[in-house]
């Protein structure tokens, strides 16, 4: 599936998820201070009460942060090709998120995704799937687990607690700021638990959410609001000090 398109139906997707879950990936050994780190995020229309439907408008943004702090971003909009179905987020969001990333021109060395990885019915959520398809080490970040369970961590930055499905540890809670709500960290493609923790803490020195994902979320919402147009943005155009995020 890496060389072709995304699955187009539930049975095809589940088959691919099961295949990915069975694979063993070589660990990523990059150095955080010298990589281009990316984040990608998609948002939808406000105020809709029903579950997402095929044809909904989606607004996606990708952000690339360079070692010197400069950024490059790409924004895209489009209609979703599939209804929202739990466990099948890749059918709905995968193509648009991939388009946003490919629009950067050069892919990140590491990627944050607003999705799960092993915390999934078939142990291969979108954070793992997107990283695998594009061959980018990936980490999923969500506000709560999908299926996994586990006690919350302590209140200090850096404290963690495991999240399990049965006897399998599939992710972990991580407190990224003292006394702020923890995030769920989902080690994805080529990322183990220790590297995931190190990476998330590296990109959350100031804010609760990792900076690449936080900026991508802000840009996607600005795109939805019509405050920016689908395009490439360069050289800190999403720097908060300039009022763009």
TrEMBL record:
UniProt key word Cytoplasm: yes
Keywords: Cytoplasm, Endonuclease, Hydrolase, Nuclease
Domain of life from the UniProt record: Bacteria
Annotated localization: Cytoplasm
GO molecular function: endonuclease activity
Main localisation: cytoplasm
CDD domains (alphabetical): Endonuclease_V
InterPro entries named in the record: Endonuclease-V (IPR007581)
Keyword Hydrolase applies: yes
Protein name listed in UniProt: Endonuclease V
Organism encoding this protein: Candidatus Methylacidiphilum infernorum
């Amino acid at each position: 599936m890496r060389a072709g398109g995304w699955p187009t139906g539930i049975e095809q997707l589940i088959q691919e998820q099961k295949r990915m879950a069975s694979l063993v990936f070589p660990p990523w050994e990059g150095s955080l201070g010298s990589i281009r780190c990316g984040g990608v995020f998609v948002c939808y229309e406000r105020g809709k009460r029903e579950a997402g439907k095929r044809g909904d408008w989606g607004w996606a943004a990708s952000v690339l942060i360079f070692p010197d702090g400069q950024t490059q971003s790409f924004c895209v909009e489009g209609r979703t090709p599939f209804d929202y179905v739990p466990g099948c987020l890749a059918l709905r969001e995968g193509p648009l998120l991939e388009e946003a990333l490919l629009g950067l021109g050069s892919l990140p060395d590491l990627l944050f995704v607003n999705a799960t990885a092993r915390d999934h019915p078939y142990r291969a959520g979108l954070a793992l799937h997107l990283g695998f398809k594009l061959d980018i080490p990936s980490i999923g970040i969500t506000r709560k687990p999908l299926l996994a369970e586990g006690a919350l961590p302590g209140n200090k930055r850096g404290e963690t607690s495991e999240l399990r499905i049965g006897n399998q540890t599939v992710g972990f809670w991580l407190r990224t700021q003292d006394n702020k709500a923890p995030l769920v960290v989902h080690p994805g493609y080529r990322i183990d638990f220790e590297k995931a923790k190190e990476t998330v803490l590296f990109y959350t020195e100031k804010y609760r959410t990792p900076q690449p994902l936080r900026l991508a979320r802000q840009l996607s919402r600005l795109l939805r609001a019509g405050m920016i147009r689908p395009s490439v943005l360069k050289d800190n155009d999403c720097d908060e000090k300039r009022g763009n995020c």
